Each structure stands twice: as C-alpha cells, then as structure tokens.
C-alpha cells in the first residue's frame, strides 16, 4: 500500500510538471544562456531534433533584438594527399594503426599551424619520415598550408593554387629552403610516435629495431 502511494505521488508530480506552460521570457533583457535554458526546458517537454533545437534557439535570441552569438570555429581541416596515403600503405599501416598514425599527424600539424599566419587548411604531402630531400634530416612531415578561400565562390585550380602559403625553413644542415611545402618537425616530448609507426619507419630508414628516432626538438 505504501509503495502504491509513493508511485501515485510521483505520477502526480510528473503530470503537474508536464502540464505547466513554458514560461514567457523578456527577449529584450535576458542573456543567451537564459534563452538556451528556456528552449532546452521546452525541448525536454516536447522533444525535437538538435537541428530544430538550434534553429529555434537562434530565432528566439534574434527576436530579442540582440546579436546572435558567434559560433566557435571548428577544428582545422587537415587532409592526407595521394602520396601521403601511399606512404601509409608502404609502411603497412592499416585499420587501427593507420588511424593512430593519422591522429598523430593531425596533432603535430594542428600545433604547427598556430605558427603559420593565415593558415586555414593543411594537406599532408608526405607523412613524417627521416631524411628525404635533405639526407640526414630528423623526423618531419611535409605539409602544404592554404589560406581561407573567399566565401560563396567556386575557385579554379589556378585560384586555389594562389591560396598556398609559401614556406621558408632551415633544414638540419643550416640551409634555408623556400617553396610551397612546409617541413613540420614534431616535438618528441609533446607528441608520442605510435609504436607501430615508429617500428615501420625504423625499418624503412634502415635503423636497428628499437633504435631512437632522431627528432629536431
């Protein structure tokens, strides 16, 4: 009997909450957080998709005569070019190990992009490797950075090429190199090279198993 009484009380409270009308808010004096709480509460009572929720939220906010809040910029766009994908294949990195290798590259490139003014996207031309165009060069990836294209425009191949950010870096021999590709030298202490990737690169570079992989930093 006691249990039945508790159930009836709970049901009564829930029915009362559902029956409550959504509180009208003064759209001229409240904050964006207040709008979100109000719309979220109404969304709880009357479920709708996330897309509808966000649209209603912004419409409600704009009706208050206030400027809509800026959306936070998403993560930088980092892609892997044809040669970079071939490099991953040549190292035998597939499935989970391939995803680890890509995650590693995205981390080191995201950090490096902060030092490239205007960089909006990054295309990995060659994954992190030893040597390459400069024999003896420590571990580095070769990356092309591009500026953000004008919104609402379809660019030709020539126009897209003009978005490339020219590079200038000093290699391990002290020579200054210029061009359209940037060398990204990962920091050993900040970014741990995945074990499978490290083993494959040692074999490719002719290093002994377990030998340290040279880093610039």
Write the layout of secondary structure elements.
Elements: H1 2-19, H2 32-45, H3 50-63, E1 77-80, H4 82-90, H5 95-113, E2 121-129, E3 140-146, H6 157-161, E4 167-170, E5 176-179, E6 182-184, H7 195-205
Parallel strand pairs: 1-2
Antiparallel strand pairs: 2-3, 3-6, 4-5
Helix pairs in contact: 2-3
Describe the structure.
The termini are far apart. The longest helix is centred in the middle third of the chain and has 19 residues, at 95-113. The chain has helices at residues 2-19, 32-45, 50-63, 82-90, 95-113, 157-161, 195-205; strands at residues 77-80, 121-129, 140-146, 167-170, 176-179, 182-184. It has a domain at 77-149 and 156-205. By secondary structure, the protein is an alpha+beta fold. It is built from seven helices and six strands; from the N terminus they run H-H-H-E-H-H-E-E-H-E-E-E-H.
Strand order of the largest sheet: 1-2-3-6
Form type? globular
- The secondary structure category is alpha+beta
What percentage of amino acids are in beta strands?
A: 5-15%
Span between N and C termini? 73 Å
Highlighted features:
217 residues; alpha+beta; 4-stranded mixed beta sheet; two-stranded antiparallel ribbon; 41% helix; 14% strand; signal
Task: Summarize, please.
Residues 1-19 form the signal peptide. This protein has 217 residues and is an alpha+beta fold. It has a domain at 77-149 and 156-205.
């Amino acid at each position: 009997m006691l249990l039945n009484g508790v159930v009836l009380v709970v049901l009564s409270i829930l029915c009362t909450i559902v029956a409550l009308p959504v509180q009208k808010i003064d759209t001229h004096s409240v904050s964006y957080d207040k709008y979100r709480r109000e719309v979220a509460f109404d969304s709880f009572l009357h479920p709708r998709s996330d897309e509808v929720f966000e649209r209603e939220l912004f419409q409600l906010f704009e009706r208050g005569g206030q400027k809509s809040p800026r959306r936070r910029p998403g993560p930088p766009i980092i892609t892997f070019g044809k040669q970079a994908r071939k490099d991953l294949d040549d190292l035998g990195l597939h499935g989970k190990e391939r995803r680890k290798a890509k995650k590693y590259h995205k981390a080191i490139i995201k950090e490096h992009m902060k030092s490239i003014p205007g960089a909006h996207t990054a295309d990995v031309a060659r994954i992190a490797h030893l040597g390459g165009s400069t024999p003896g060069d420590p571990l580095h990836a070769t990356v092309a950075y591009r500026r953000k294209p004008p919104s609402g425009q379809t660019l030709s191949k020539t126009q897209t090429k003009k978005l490339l950010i020219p590079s200038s870096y000093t290699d391990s021999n002290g020579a200054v190199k210029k061009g359209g590709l940037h060398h990204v030298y990962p920091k050993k202490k900040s970014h741990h090279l995945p074990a499978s990737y490290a083993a494959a690169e040692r074999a490719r570079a002719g290093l002994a198993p377990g030998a340290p992989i040279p880093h610039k930093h």
